[in-house]
Amino acid sequence: MGFRCGIVGLPNVGKSTLFNALTETQAAQAANYPFCTIEPNVGQVGVPDERLDKLAAIAGSAKIIPTQLGFVDIAGLVRGASQGEGLGNQFLANIREVDAIIHVLRCFEDDDIQHVENRVDPTLDAEIVETELLLADLESLEKRVPAAQKRATGGDKEARITASVLGQALELLRDGKPARLTKPKDIEEARVFKQAQLLTAKPVLYVCNVEEDAAAQGNAFSARVFEQAKAEGASAVIVSAAIEAELIGMEPEDRMVFLEEMGLSENGLSRIIRSGYDLLHLITFFTVGPKEARAWTVHTGATGPEAAGEIHSDMERGFIRAETIAYDDFVTLGGETAAKDAGKLRQEGKDYEVKDGDVLHFKFNV
């Protein structure tokens, strides 16, 4: 599965610099003027996971294939985007296609870098973007909900579901609250709500882009963002895009030395991935053998057949069972054979919920 995160924010807050650093490319032109990014840049990043390396070493795997994380660098948004200002229409269309929003906020002072609002205030920046997304959703639902309500009076079951759940979202938006606070009452309402692709329904991770000296502990700006995120039920992390850019091209051992000198134990990518996984309720399972050790991503609560489907749709359709070994058992006992001899290899059926770190081997028939 992996997941696809849209990097958004006002112009000149460090979006493209962060994208370049995270994807270790220079695919996105980073420059000090608004709308440097016009077409969204897309990058796939292998998710670092020490567990995968350990499994590969035990199994003697010839290849190591991490699961992938997608980043989309989307054009900067300005006031009036919901009415088409700047590159608003394109911005809103691009953001509908992502699973989560990584909202980059400028949390540093620098007279050499222009701010589109001519001031540095990350909480107000966040409000501008959220307001434009909210206005776009509000315009959409003020047309859709009355239409659904009218059809519902004629006995249309789907319209009744739509009117109920989107009506709830509309009331939240009218109160200035994001649609993500909507609470569908059953599976059908959840399906309709998801299909609506509301912009403010996307989970949000605030990324506080701070100066190098504040990368470890943050600063007064980032502290305010964390307070706001807590109040909204959102998440936040501290990253220095400047530091991440410096890490590009360094050897792994040099990176660790550099990070330690900066008072950091890991790079920004790792923090964003971990927070992103929590945000989207994702977990990782592994397939391990002599040819390759590979990580896969599924949502929390995924069943054995659903996990098999991440590898190939035929495996989900013809699923019989999953041979399952917990990661700790695989590592502690030294591999599949030893785990099986110790009675730690389990046969799980179609209702099994995959656990984070499971080492799986699927039996299927098509």
Give the topology, please:
Elements: E1 3-8, H1 15-23, E2 41-46, H2 50-59, E3 63-65, E4 68-73, H3 88-96, E5 100-106, H4 122-152, H5 157-174, H6 187-195, E6 204-209, H7 220-232, E7 235-239, H8 241-247, H9 252-261, H10 268-280, E8 282-288, E9 292-299, H11 304-311, H12 313-317, E10 319-325, H13 327-333, H14 336-341, E11 346-348, E12 359-364
Parallel strand pairs: 1-4, 1-5, 3-9, 5-6, 6-7
Antiparallel strand pairs: 2-4, 8-9, 10-11, 10-12
Widest β-sheet, arrangement of strands: 2-4-1-5-6-7
Order of helices and strands: EHEHEEHEHHHEHEHHHEEHHEHHEE
**Structural class computed from helices and strand pairing:** alpha/beta
DSSP strand tally: 12
Choose one word for the global shape. Answer: flat
Low-confidence stretches: 25-39, 84-88
Helix content: 40-55%
Q: How many alpha or pi helices?
A: 14
Major sheet description: 6 strands, mixed
Residue fraction in strands: 15-25%
Mean of pLDDT: 86
Could you tell me the radius of gyration in angstroms?
23 Å
- First-to-last CA distance: 22 Å
